[in-house]
Amino acid sequence: MNITKIISKAFDSRLKEIDLYNSQAGEIQHQVLTKLVSRAAQTEWGKKYDYKSIRNYDDFKNRLPIQTYEEVKPYVERLRAGEKNLLWPSEIRWFAKSSGTTNDKSKFLPVSQDSLNDIHYRGGKDAAALYFRINPESRFFSGKGLILGGSHSPNLNSNHSLVGDLSAILIQNVSPLVNLVRVPSKKIALMDEWESKIEAIANSTIHANVTNLSGVPSWYLVLIKRILEKTGKQSLEEVWPNLEVFFHGGVAFTPYREQYKQVIHKPDMHYVETYNASEGYFGTQNDLSDPSMLLMIDYGIFYEFIPLEEVGKENPLTYCLEEVELDKNYALVISTSSGLWRYMIGDTVKFTSKNPYKFVITGRTKHFINAFGEELIVDNAEKGLAKACAATGALVSEYSAAPVFMDKQAKCRHQWIIEFAKMPDSVDKFASVLDATLKEVNSDYEAKRWKDIALQPLEVVVARKGLFHHWLALKGKLGGQHKVPRLSNTREYIETMLELNNAAS
Fold it and tell me: Which H, E and C letters describe 343-397, residue by residue?
């Protein structure tokens, strides 16, 4: 008997609701806005902006300014100190620790009980529901799910409030029923010392019947390779023969796809991209032949979008969902049941479909290179790297890039530091193909590279093994949801990376 097929029937009614995304997206989103504004009307924030008199989206966007973490931070500090009813009417006991801003090492984003239930956990359930539609022969529930998450600690020495990775907050508060079908134990899953944690997870799960994985691809590779070392196996399905799906997110999967083929050989392994950030759960891949994700529009999140060329302006143009255009880059702005209002999260997206609304993540508003007017985004970089790898037989583990503003010969260029899981047959050829592909996918880059006048050919620096792991460790960002900055408009990150690389050579 296939127990998964029986359990998956419980998701049928939810799938019918999701199917309404095709025809009722605008109405659904405006209902979400009305509900959020109504719930928060009596909060300090709601009174400040007179939420009681907001009747529609135009009222909302004309009255509230766009927020970044710098504007939200004073409220977060008060919430962390125990104040209530500031941004959202329920008590805020959890704070998701995320990568920092220009002024702060870390951001602490409020997570309400409402948002846990109507955003994050709903996202996880819907990812499963959509996967069962993709793979009706799934045996998902015949074994356990392995969730690789971060850690948490008391907030401001309070035992009743926690701060940590979102994944740790989710594991801490998950239903006891979910714990019955999940490994490792909560005690191991929430360990804070990363290398000990990897060892403990490997030891405790090697003999489990794992059918599904959830987590960040870069950190999962560390765990998988350790498990293969300990067992002496060549592929992960030799350890877990019933493994069938990896729900991944946090970083683009493109640089890791070939590496996963090296450690998971089974041809029917499924890879499903999800978009579950500290600020909310936004999307799930619902078609394995299409890399786009379905925008989840009936959670406690109202979406707005700023055209990339408007980012940084004092009063940028913003659009609601039904106003967006296809194939255009937008900065994502959200209002949520955690009390984030018109909050720009820093990610950029591009829509590939409107019926239903589907999108791809194209980068970060701060992770790009535009030192010379080239407007290079992460999406361009991923496409360039994929072609360079295909042309040279290389596999990329990690990378980061930044501009060289002017060298001793008064020349400007982009400098890439790349850690290879498999070296290219020629680093020069790799660099040449990468450069040529960036010209193909980005007309601004092509224009700046014209006859080497404004920009010289890019430079590839080969990183030693483990460089990025070392760099993250020095910054106290090893494991969990921490990520390497892919592109930077300054040399803040790359200079330290180069110093570490040179020190070992």
Answer: EEEEEEEEEEEECCEEEEEEEECCCEECCCCCCEEHHHHHHHHHHHHHHHCCEEE
